[in-house]
Amino acid sequence: MPRYRYEALEQELKQQIRSGYLKSGDRLPSIRKLCSHYELSKATVLHALHRLEADRWVQAQPKSGYFVRYPEQERPKPIRVDTPKVPAPVSVPAIFQDIMTRSAAFDILPAADQEDASSQLIVLNRLISRQMRHKPEQKSGYYDEPAGKASLRAALSDQFRYRQLMVSADEICITTGCQHSLFIALMSTCQPGDTVAVESPAFYGVLQIMEHLGLNIIEISSDSAHGLDVDELAEKLTHWPIKACVVTPNFGTPAGACLSDDCRKRLLSLATEHDFWLIEDDIYGDLAFSSPSTRPLKSLDNSDEQRVILCGSFSKSLSRDLRLGWILAGPLHNKAVQMKLITQLASPQAVQEGLAQFISEGHYRRHLNQFRLKLREQRDELINLLANNWGDRVLFSQPEGGLCIWVQLPESCDSQKAYRSLREQGILLTPGTLFSAHGLYNNYLRLSFAQPLTADRKKALSVLFDTLFATEA
Q1: Averaged pLDDT, 12-36
Q2: Greatest alpha-carbon span in the chain
């Protein structure tokens, strides 16, 4: 039975949609009529409608009200690519440096007009500025404590409770971002020459770290529907000693899959059985569209060994400019703090204090509620554009969170070759070969919906696909 009145209204409207009383495209009664008919407050009705919208039962249309959504067409997903059976050294293509130099990792048209900052980001900047003015002589004369500000670690501990992960502030170490956290995790668990399993397609930042540390990679097939293939990992573990496995269970780039609970539990069992570390990249964990949050893999890690090292940051969920992340290294916490001292020494105090206040006062939760709705709308718009214009020639993922769509082109297309000609026109694509240490995914690319699909970006996408199809043999 529903515990709250908004839940009762939510279930009632769902039942009306299931029964066909409310059909796809129908307009729901106005908020005023719902309040009157069910004898509810406006806040209660709005809360129920927002939950229905988050679960994709209804869709809000500005100045028109709420409408029952049309059923989404199930489309074929990109085909999974088989990976090599043996480990190999890592080599990151030179194109990675070029993309990062042009600030184009999540925008095909970096020169396009940018949106105004959200009200929550303005609040964040104000809080950080206030902390910079508070006791400036102390901040300028002393370093932060090695693990990071206690206030920020406490705020993160509270934030994780929303996602069913119970950790104390003392278990958290603040870093300069998720990339830094992954670097610390791999340095803390591996030596040069060790083999690390990585889901494929892989996050190119991990490949870059592994190349620098002299680690070997064994790629594990992944797809946009189910994520990492745990059966393939289990099979390769019988042939090769794997020291760690890097995995993004929640909406990882570029495929955007969310790993099932059964697969997560099997991963943990394999890590215990074969004695390797699971390094969880949780950077997209706060960006689920259809539910308030997703559980980290680490929340299931209740064994004495604590095999999961969780890494994350605010760069995808809040601001690229906010270079703060965290690592929860479990039994390797002290080693992780030592590695942080070696590679960073300390974190900026005022930024940490301002961010801690931002989280504690509820601004971060409000930002996420707005941001997830915005991202989902931008994802839908990009998917519809792809389906209506190029749906007969490409396959693409339909992620339920994160920032990216994984696109499969005809086999004869070459996304890396198209990169160079598009760059001259100010259009930056992210070619598929960037996501493999073995040069896989030549006819794939990653598209992001992190930016609004303006008229200029739509035009850029048209040029992009015209150029890609021109590379066909």
Answers
A1: 89
A2: 69
Q: Cβ contacts of residue 283 below 8 Å, gap of 6+?
A: 178, 248, 311, 312, 313, 315, 316, 317
Structure tokens at 272: 């215990």
**Rounded distance, CA 436 to CA 136, Å?**
46
Q: Report whether 390 contacts 409 (CB < 8 A).
A: no
Enumerate the domain spans of the chain: 5-68, 93-116+366-470, 119-364
Provide mean pLDDT across the span 277-281.
Answer: 98
Residue 292, pLDDT > 60, answer no
**Mean pLDDT within 83-97:** 85
Domain 119-364 = CATH 3.40.50.720: no
CATH architecture of 93-116+366-470: Alpha-Beta Complex (3.90)
Cβ atoms 108, 461 nearer than 8 A:
yes
Taking 90 as the threshold, does the pLDDT of residue 367 lie above it?
yes
- Count Cβ atoms below 10 Å from residue 393 Cβ, excluding itself: 15
CATH 3.40.50.150 describes domain 5-68? no
Residues in the chain, overall count: 473
Rounded Cα distance, 470 and 216, in Å: 36
In whole angstroms, give the CA distance from residue 97 to residue 92: 9
Task: List phi, psi (to 5°) of 214.
Answer: 70, 35
Chain Cα centroid distance, residue 260 = 16
Q: How far apart are CA 348 and CA 364, in angstroms?
A: 19
CB 47 within 8 A of CB 176: no
Strand partners, 430: 446
For residues 186-200, average pLDDT? 97
Average pLDDT, the chain: 90
Cα–Cα–Cα angle for 305, 309, 313, nearest 5°? 155
What's this model's pTM, rounded to 2 decimal places?
Answer: 0.84
- Structure-token pair, residue 188: 């803390």
**How large is the average pLDDT for residues 339-361?**
94
